[in-house]
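sanity check this record:

:::
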Amino acid sequence: MFARILCPIDPERDPMDALELSRELAKQNSATVCLLTVIAEPLAPAAELPPVTVDPIPTFQAKCRVRLEALAREKLAEVSHEIFLATGNAAPQIVRLATEQHIDLIVMFTHGYPGIRHVLLGSVAERVVHESPVPVLTIRPHKLLGK
């Protein structure tokens, strides 16, 4: 049913539930998991703020790729997988990659923020659900599911 499953994650923040579900779906469907991390572009510092030292984008991308490759070796060893990095706003980059890579399903984590927190912080998952050309399966954190 699914040949290509996109799993966008932030390996530093997201629980691995979406990745584990992607792996199981890939095993059941002989599918490929496309693991994606979107790196936000740095904002220009305000004039009144002191300069902040950050890794240049290519250096940070290389570090992210190393982390994704290690994660893929650990969690996706038994299924076909590909690794993708993108830079920019997460939701449009996820939708773009889904279209370009002929993805059949997107499996992604949602923070599940309630009420005003959701309004203030927005939701990448919600934007992807509304803009995606393919089905999106969202996974909420265990703590919100009562586990």
In short: The first helix runs from residue 17 to 29. The two ends are 30 Å apart (CA to CA).
